[in-house]
Specification:
Number of domains: 2
CATH class of the largest domain: Alpha Beta
CATH topology of the largest domain: Rossmann fold
Order of helices and strands: EHEHEHEHEHHEHEHEHEHEHEHEH
Strand content: 5-15%
Helix content: 25-40%
Distance between the termini: 23 Å
Strand order of the largest sheet: 8-7-6-9-10-11-12
Structural class: alpha/beta
Bound molecules: (2R)-2,3-dihydroxypropanoic acid
Radius of gyration: 21 Å
Length: 324
């Protein structure tokens, strides 16, 4: 590459990746890590060869269709790309890439943490100790749910769901069931003895833990509402590491308040970083701030993946993780 392409990174990235970008491109970083406004994103797309946003930047049609747009590629830092108007990117001939695979294990680990944390009342227990409320061991104190041998229902059977299935089956002897109309790789499912359900309702009725692993699309938005939650076992838990808007958060709160299910473990929310205030009042929910991929190793690997995608693009090659 002889020409130094101009690239803009919208948030603070791991230093190792920022340094690599500096070596190769004419890069503008965001040292303060403040989110960019819509006007700043338009200015960026108008003045840089590549825009490198992340899952919390909304890159809508107004931005992509900007009449002075210079960027021909949007290299998203994240596997999910529901923050980008894909139809607009297609219409405008803008290439979009994401960062799959490198975050699979860490996100699956967080799903397991939520299963364990919700089932074994981990945050409730921790607060109890910190608030000095603990009066000592006793046979009926803070009893949770046994995880081993239970049924785990996966909605969506992509890479992350498969990693969760592996960990849950081999680590906790859980019986795996799944619903995914697009998944046909039955050989993979056989590895952890996973059984396909013919409908979401069948999965909801059968599972002790229901874990969401589908992307946020028009089809899945609001998929888990009060009607669906009412089909779950009273003793079961809902786990979400996918996207907040797959669940109608108000309906989930109502279900948890009325004890229609035993609890929930959430890493993602409908309007991040805002969390439903009623949810914050509940004890039977284990809450994390979208930590799925948040490890040093994974965040560095995600950044390197963006680097590789835009480098290929500027070299005239097909970026490995092109989604549009
Ligand atoms: C992603 O990459 O889509 C994740 O939600 C970030 O952890």
């Amino acid at each position: 590459m002889t020409q130094k392409f101009k690239v803009l990174v919208t948030r603070k990235w791991p230093s190792s990746v920022e340094n690599k970008l500096k070596d190769t491109f004419d890069v503008t970083l965001n040292e303060n890590d403040n989110p960019l406004s819509k006007a700043e994103l338009i200015e960026a797309i108008d003045n840089y060869d590549a825009l490198l946003p992340t899952v919390t930047d909304t890159i809508n049609d107004e931005i992509i269709s900007s009449k002075n747009r210079r960027s021909k590629i949007i290299g998203n830092f994240g596997v999910g790309f529901n923050n980008i108007d894909i139809e607009s990117a297609k219409k405008n001939g803008v290439v979009v890439t994401n960062t799959p695979e490198v975050l699979t294990d860490c996100t699956a680990d967080i799903a397991m943490l939520l299963i364990l944390g919700a089932g074994r009342r981990a945050s409730e227990g921790e607060f109890h100790v910190r608030k000095k409320e603990w009066t000592g061991w006793r046979p009926t104190h803070m009893m949770g749910t046994k995880i081993t041998d239970k049924v785990l229902g996966l909605i969506g059977m992509g890479r992350i769901a498969q990693a969760v299935a592996h960990k849950a089956h081999f680590g906790f002897n859980m019986r795996i069931v799944y619903y995914d109309p697009y998944f046909k790789n039955y050989e993979i499912a056989e590895k952890f003895n996973a059984q396909a359900c013919s409908s979401i309702d069948d999965l909801l009725k059968d599972s002790d833990f229901v874990s969401l692993h589908c992307p946020s699309t028009k089809e899945t938005k609001g998929l888990i509402n009060l009607e669906k939650i009412s089909k779950m076992k009273k003793t079961s838990y809902l786990i979400n590491t996918a996207r907040g808007d797959i669940v109608v958060e108000d309906d989930l709160v109502t279900a948890l308040e009325k004890k229609l299910i035993n609890g929930a473990g959430l890493d993602v929310y409908e309007e991040e970083p805002k969390v439903n205030s009623r949810l914050l009042e509940l004890k039977n929910v284990f809450l994390l701030p979208h930590l799925g991929s948040a490890t040093e190793e994974t965040r560095e690997a995600m950044g390197m993946r963006v680097f590789s995608n835009i480098s290929s693009f500027f070299d005239g090659k097909e970026p490995r993780d092109r989604v549009v």
